[in-house]
Structures are given as structure tokens and as C-alpha cells.
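User: Batch of two.

Assistant: Item 1 of 2:
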Amino acid sequence: VQLQASGGGLVQAGGSLRLSCAPSGRTFSSYAMGWFRQAPGKERELVARISSGGSTYYADSVKGRFTISRGNTKNTVYLQMNSLVPEDTAIYYCAANVAGSGYAYWGQGTQVTVSS
């Protein structure tokens, strides 16, 4: 079972990126999914989460700038990131939340670098 995160890259402040998380080996359409990030020297933090029913949560630092969504089959999860700032620079990970077990499945991470 794997989660493949993609879409990271280098962007100037104020720019946008769209991250994708696609699973292989099983379907995650009935699981809550989250995007996390970890910047150098900092702890990993939850950026956004979407439930199987579509309810969303955002960290205060990204509210109004980031949007988490599911694809038509609900198996792929996206993170649209707008108005990026250098503080958004981090490795971004997607993860699947298994009821009772927390975030049990993780992707390999994709690097996002925002230049000033």
C-alpha cells in the first residue's frame, strides 16, 4: 500500500502549487485524508484534513490560502496552495487516517520551496 504525493516544486512568493496524493494498492475513498508538512528543524504539522464526507479542517496558518479536496472518485486528494509565502517551505506529506489507528498510511513527501 502506497500513497504517492506529487506536485511540489520551486515557486516565488505569491505563487501557487497544486499537490496531488494518489494511492496504490487499495482505495482510500472512505478514509479521512490529511496533508502534513515538515520544515527543517521543525516538527511535522497538520496543514489540512478532509473527511470521507468532505468536511475540511485547516491550520490557522493556511486558512484562506490552501484548499483540500478530493477527486471525482474520492480516491485522489489534492491540496491547492495559493498566495504562497517563504514560511510554507517544507516537505509536504499526505496520509490516510484509519479509524482507531490514526494516520496509518503515509506518502513519501514532496518538496515545496517558496522563494522571497
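Item 2 of 2:
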Amino acid sequence: VQLVESGGGTVQAGGSLRLSCAASGFTFSSYAMAWYRQAPGKEREWVGLTHRSGDITHYADSVKGRFTISRQNAENTVYLQMNKLKSEDTAVYYCKPLGTNYWGQGTQVTVSP
């Protein structure tokens, strides 16, 4: 199993970023996919998830209305569109197939004031 997150970077508060997670080594369309993040000195926290078909999503209250998760099963890729970014969104972002303990290396998102 391989999960490769990309798209992170540094952005000013109020800006946007789109993260990607390319998956391989398992049947991508059979798994709900989640995004998590971990800020410096804090526990890893759940950001949101998309069901297997991508038609149902759920979000943490802290990102609801600003972040959108989507997926392209034909491309084995899940996305995290992040808008109206805040400094508290600064973290390393990870994707994860639900029900597994597989993690990628993460991608750093830094939001400057």
C-alpha cells in the first residue's frame, strides 16, 4: 500500500490550497477515505472523509464550510480543497483509507497571518 500526499505549501490567511492523495496497492474504490492533520505539539485530528463512491462526505466542525473532499476512483486519488485558510489550519495533512492503519508521509500546509 502506498499513499502519496502532495499539494501542500505556504499560503496567506484567506487563501486556498488543493491537496491530493494518490493511492496504490489496494482497491481504492472499496474504501472510504479520510483526511487527518497534525499540528506541531498536538494530536493528529480527523478533518473529514468521503464514502466509497464520493457522494457522501463528513467534516470536522473546524473545517466545515471551508474544506471540500472529493475523489476520482478511476485515478485512485482523493482531494482536499481548502478555502478561507486560517493560521490554525497549519499542520501536516495525511490521507488514510478507513479501517486500515496505512498512512502516507503527509504534506505540510503553512498558513501565514
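The beta strands are 2-6, 9-12, 17-24, 33-38, 45-50, 57-59, 67-72, 77-82, 91-97, 107-112.
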